[in-house]
Amino acid sequence: MPESLQQLENEIITCRKCPRLVAWREEVAQTKRKAYRELPYWGKPVPGFGDPNARIMVVGLAPGAHGSNRTGRMFTGDASGKFLYPALYRAGLANQPTGDEPDDGLVLKDIFITAICRCVPPKNKPTVAEIKTCLPWMSAEVEQLPKLQGFVALGRIAFDGIRRMYKIQGVELPRMTFGHNTLNHLGDGLPWLLSSYHPSQQNTQTGRLTEEMFDAVWKKGKSLLK
């Protein structure tokens, strides 16, 4: 059992349990996108990051091929992050509205950001087996956050992944419904689960997810904190 978040991070970035994902993340890091041809790519599993005293865990799907897989930090360097971090800043959960590079001075307040899968999957679609293999990392992060009160799931796969994590642990869960800004309760003594549409370009550029809709999620999340 890791004794600290730092030790856990060191274990995560050395993981090679899923051959398909290892091959893909490294291929992307070698071929690169033309716009980032001169920049180094991370090309390894991406650990969670944030406030060690976080009361809210924010859960995404997986690193973006040329976002987190390039920068090594969740939601950093792609369009999803450019929508997420301004919202966190407006909610008072981040010290600045930008999060473009790992050394940009971003500090999260009361939240810890992680993902269901730590390696970029081809076509953004991890298999069920890959999700199950990766979920113990998130379980370990949860154990390292003693003040955790709730989850914000960004997207349906994150929502299902959080529930799967507890089912693997043998927890019987009530029926739940995924929806934007929808609150579910996992059970007595467990964190609450608030869900949101994912801040992907597919959602933000089509108007399925607006700034106002996203702000409402963080407002509700903060209101639930004890």
Topology (elements, then pairings):
Layout: H1 5-12, H2 19-31, E1 49-50, E2 56-60, H3 68-71, H4 79-90, E3 111-115, H5 128-143, E4 150-154, H6 156-168, E5 182-185, E6 192-196, H7 201-204, H8 211-223
Parallel strand pairs: 2-3, 2-4, 4-6
Antiparallel strand pairs: 1-3, 5-6
Helix pairs in contact: 4-8, 5-6
* Tally of helical runs: 8
Report low-confidence residues grouped into runs of 5 or more: none
Count of folded domains:
1
Named at the architecture level, the CATH assignment is 3-Layer(aba) Sandwich
String of helices and strands: HHEEHHEHEHEEHH
CATH topology: Uracil-DNA Glycosylase, subunit E
Specify the overall morphology.
globular
Terminal Cα separation, in Å? 28 Å
Helix content: 25-40%
**Average pLDDT score:** 96
Q: Give me the Rg, rounded.
A: 16 Å
The order of strands across the largest sheet is 1-3-2-4-6-5
Q: Please state roughly what percent of the residues sit in beta strands, choosing from under 5%, 5-15%, 15-25%, 25-35%, 35-45% or over 45%.
A: 5-15%
CATH homology group? Uracil-DNA glycosylase-like domain
Q: What profile does the largest beta sheet have? A: 6 strands, mixed
Which CATH class applies here? Alpha Beta
Structural class: alpha/beta
Number of strands: 6
